[in-house]
Design brief:
Blueprint: E1 2-4, H1 6-18, H2 23-39, E2 50-55, H3 59-73, E3 77-82, H4 98-105, E4 109-112, H5 120-128, E5 131-135, H6 147-161, E6 168-172, E7 194-198, E8 200-202, H7 210-214, E9 216-220, H8 229-232, E10 236-238, H9 241-247, E11 262-266, H10 274-285, E12 290-296, H11 297-303, E13 311-315, E14 317-318, E15 321-322, H12 326-332, E16 339-342, H13 350-361, E17 373-378, E18 381-386, E19 393-396, H14 398-403, H15 409-412, E20 418-420, H16 423-430, H17 434-439, H18 441-452, E21 455-458, E22 464-466, E23 472-474, H19 487-500, H20 505-527, H21 535-546
Parallel strand pairs: 1-8, 2-3, 2-5, 3-4, 5-6, 6-7, 7-9, 10-23, 11-12, 11-16, 12-13, 16-19, 19-20, 20-21
Antiparallel strand pairs: 14-15, 17-18, 21-22, 22-23
Length: 549
């Protein structure tokens, strides 16, 4: 599903119209798609199904009239309540509005707000409707609401609240009263159970408070093709199960563990022993063939009994944290790894920062240069190491904060490294305040992915994945179930596991973030309360998510 601003969508429709896909044709496809989505609701053809359309003067009102006409043809009883939409009848009773005329010819009943001064009819229609289709205001709406529209929406909200079995509310493109760019919303906005977006999700719907008012998000096609350049050039998306299923690696029946790669995970310290366990187990849950844990001895002693599936690489340690000289050991043992994760549970000590710096500087500076012997300082003496290129890299958690302290860090990383910061870690990497990052998450993720030349996974509500080439994907999930220590370690393990299976960096980040978010939702459902979800519950729910593919 593509993600657009209001201005981008207007430009797309204008170009499409100029190239032969008329506004009328787009509206017909939108209305037909809207009707199809309503038909998917759990109503039997034998039921007496009734829909009430709230019709404004704009295109969303037109889409709704088209949809209601299709529903009437399928046996629904349909009514259209017109708000600020001028409709008159000639002497023959024919409407001046072609869409309204089509609707009445299909058997629909039209009521104008001007003829319902006390809103008695509106309240009664809400009470008898199975479905309310909200087409009052469009995506171009800006606050504040006009008084007469606010009154209509307030009446509908009150009438819905009075029902023992309230109607199912379907918003057309956006709930009326929502700013489709900023996500701001009027107090009288009617909360939707489902928002059917035309062609693409409008970016404001993935912001608060709009997200909580939009319900489930679905998209219907309106006939746009790649011949429309402004449509083709939109590279921002919203992840869904179809997108993820298309990019996940295949799992042939004749596979062996080598088929699915080896994830090498350098993680943990004496104070953060759980992080490597969560990351390693999540990597296995992703489908990787082998997980090798590169940890200090205090971590290995504690964790090994809980993780028999892993193999172990012991790293030098200093007071319970990974020591500077561990770079030599890791460089000598990463040749078989198909992806490497560093950072979870590292702590903030300078010796671990030096480990990261030596690890990154131990690779060849340019692909055309042959491997060469270099030297690192270990225990007061220079030790020769092979300057071997690192495998595809993921950097998470404390690894990011330590990375930020290294001069020129972005240029030291392997190409297409995946960085997985939360807002605080993004602040450390960029020098910006957390509040500034949160206020412009999408654009800043895109900006720094391009500037650094690496994939950025900006975690949080509506996690953003941005690639250096300008592509970006949002995860349409905001859940308190994921606001828990350790869930980031699970995400990092998922991503490195997918990367190790041969997925490209951007695809692995998108798929990992989507699976992780869905696992959070599954975990909340399984446990019964967001507040009670632990990182281990999210880890266990990964299998539930993947079982759907």
């Amino acid at each position: 599903m593509k993600l657009v601003t209001v201005a981008e969508m207007r430009a797309v429709e204008k170009e499409a119209d100029a190239k032969g896909l008329s506004y009328a044709q787009m509206m017909e496809k939108a209305g037909r798609g809207l009707a199809d989505e309503i038909q998917l609701l759990a109503y039997s053809e034998d039921d007496e199904r009734e829909a009430l359309g709230l019709i404004g003067s704009g295109n969303n009102g037109g889409d709704t009239l088209v949809a209601l006409a299709h529903l009437a043809a399928d046996g629904w009883r349909v009514r259209a309540y017109l708000i600020n939409r001028s409709v008159s009848l000639d002497q023959a009773g024919v409407s001046s509005d072609a869409l309204a005329e089509r609707f009445t010819q299909a058997g629909g009943e039209i009521i104008r707000v001007e003829d319902d001064a006390r809103f008695d009819k509106l309240s009664a229609f809400v009470g008898s409707a199975d479905v309310i289709v909200d087409g009052v205001l469009g995506t171009g709406f800006k606050l504040p609401l006009r008084a007469e529209v606010a009154k209509v929406l307030a009446v509908v909200n009150t009438a819905i609240a009075e029902q023992s079995w309230p109607p199912y509310v379907v918003a057309v493109d956006c709930p009326s009263g929502v700013d489709s760019d900023s996500g701001e919303a009027a107090d009288d906005t009617i909360p939707a159970s489902l928002t059917v977006s035309m062609a693409a999700i409008k970016q404001g719907l993935l912001k608060f408070p709009a997200f909580e008012l939009a319900g489930e998000l679905r998209v219907v096609e309106i006939g746009l093709k790649d011949e429309v350049e402004s449509w083709k050039n939109i590279h921002h998306f919203v992840a869904d199960d179809e997108l993820v299923e298309d990019i996940l690696p295949l799992r042939p029946a004749d596979s062996h563990k080598g088929t699915f790669g080896t994830a090498l995970i350098a993680a943990g310290s004496i104070n953060y022993i759980g992080a490597p366990l969560l990351a390693g187990r999540a990597a296995y849950r992703s489908g990787v063939g082998l997980v090798q844990m590169a940890v200090s001895s205090p971590v290995q002693i504690t964790v090994a009994g809980h993780f028999p599936e892993a193999t172990w690489l012991m790293l030098p340690q200093e007071m319970g944290v990974i020591a500077e000289g561990a770079a030599e050991v890791l460089l000598k043992n990463c040749a078989r790894a198909t992806a490497l994760l560093i950072g979870p549970g590292f702590g903030s000590e300078d010796t671990t920062k030096s480990f990261i710096e030596h690890l990154l500087k131990g690779k060849p500076g340019a692909p055309k240069n042959p491997a060469r012997i270099g030297f690192i300082q270990v225990g007061g003496e220079k030790v020769a190491v092979q300057n071997t290129a690192l495998p595809p890299l993921v950097v998470d958690a404390d690894g990011l904060r330590l990375l930020a302290k290294i001069d020129g860090w972005a240029s030291l990383l392997p190409a297409d490294t995946i960085l997985t910061p939360h807002p605080g870690e993004m602040a450390a990497l960029t020098g910006l305040e957390k509040e500034a990052i949160q206020a412009d998450r999408l654009n800043l993720a895109i900006k720094f992915a391009a500037e650094w030349g690496h994939v950025v996974v900006l975690k949080g509500a509506f996690t953003v994945i941005a690639a250096p080439d300008g592509r970006a994907t949002l995860i349409p999930v905001a859940s308190a179930a994921l606001a828990r220590a350790g869930t980031g370690d699970v995400l990092a393990g998922l991503i490195v596991g997918l990367r190790a299976q041969g997925m490209d960096a951007y695809g692995a980040a998108v798929a990992g973030a989507w699976i992780h978010a869905q696992a959070g939702l599954y975990a909340a459902e399984n446990v019964g309360a967001d507040a009670s979800v632990m990182a281990g519950d999210v880890l266990d729910a990964i299998a539930d998510v993947l079982s759907g593919f």
